[in-house]
Amino acid sequence: MIIEFAQELYQYEEKGIPTIDPPPSAFVRVYSEKKDEIIVETLEAEAKRAKEKAVLTSSLSTKKGYLTKALLKVREYREKYPNIPDLARLEDNLTQDMHRAELDDHLEAARKAEFKGDKKKALDRYYDAVYFLRRDDVKDSLEEDIIGEIERKVKELGGSLEEPD
Q1: Cα torsion for 70, 74, 76, 77, to the nearest 10°?
Q2: pLDDT tens, 22-68?
Q3: Cα 46 from Cα 52, distance rounded (Å)
Q4: Taking CA 109 as the corner, what is the angle to CA 105 and CA 67, rounded to the nearest 5 degrees?
Q5: SS (H, E, C) the chain
Q6: 88-112: burial string, b at 16+ Cβ within 10 Å, e else
Q7: What is the pTM of this model?
Q8: CA–CA dist 147, 102 (Å, integer)
Q9: If we measure between CA atoms, which residue out of 3, 82, 96 comes closest to residue 47?
Q10: How buried is residue 64: exposed, middle or buried, by Cβ count under 10 Å (0-12/13-18/19+)?
Q11: CA 19/CA 11 separation, integer angstroms
């Protein structure tokens, strides 16, 4: 926005009409050089605020709401400026945070049911977690530890993870 406003004022500067100090041409030059950096810093700050808010709530939908809002903004800028590599990194980080929030919600519900002695409900929630992990976009080889932990819990509760043919 600064660049756009400065470009409008630049027309007056070219005609010798004083506008602002420093002149609009200086703003255009300085901020054009720093545009990518400013975009990334602004979006990183927004992502950080979204993550901080998400941590403070216990509701999965609220957590995902905060993270989704930031993610959509990053995607919007990534579409406008595809040559800024840090935007892809930021998008991946937010996507992973949303993924982790959903997985944690399944696991927390399973642990809660297990704590209450409701083995059937605990098993169902562990099954939900496995289903989520097997159908997400993350390679299962990267999630082996958590899948192994869940499989141990399912067996401990008397369940099975055999997929039907």
Answers
A1: 140
A2: 888 887 777 777 888 889 999 999 999 999 999 999 999 999 999 99
A3: 10
A4: 15
A5: CHHHHHHHHHHHHHCCCCCCCCCHHHHHHHHHHHHHHHHHHHHHHHHHHHHHHHHHCCCHHHHHHHHHHHHHHHHHHHHHCCCCHHHHHHHHHHHHHHHHHHHHHHHHHHHHHHHCCCHHHHHHHHHHHHHHHHHCCCCHHHHHHHHHHHHHHHHHCCCCCCCCC
A6: eebbebbbebbbebbbebbbebbee
A7: 0.73
A8: 15
A9: 96
A10: middle
A11: 10
Token pair in block for residue 6: 């400065």
- Across the chain, mean pLDDT equals 88
Q: Residue 2 carries which side chain, given as an amino acid letter?
A: I
**Which amino acid is it at 97?**
D
Q: Are the C-beta atoms of residues 19 and 9 closer than 8 Å to each other?
A: yes
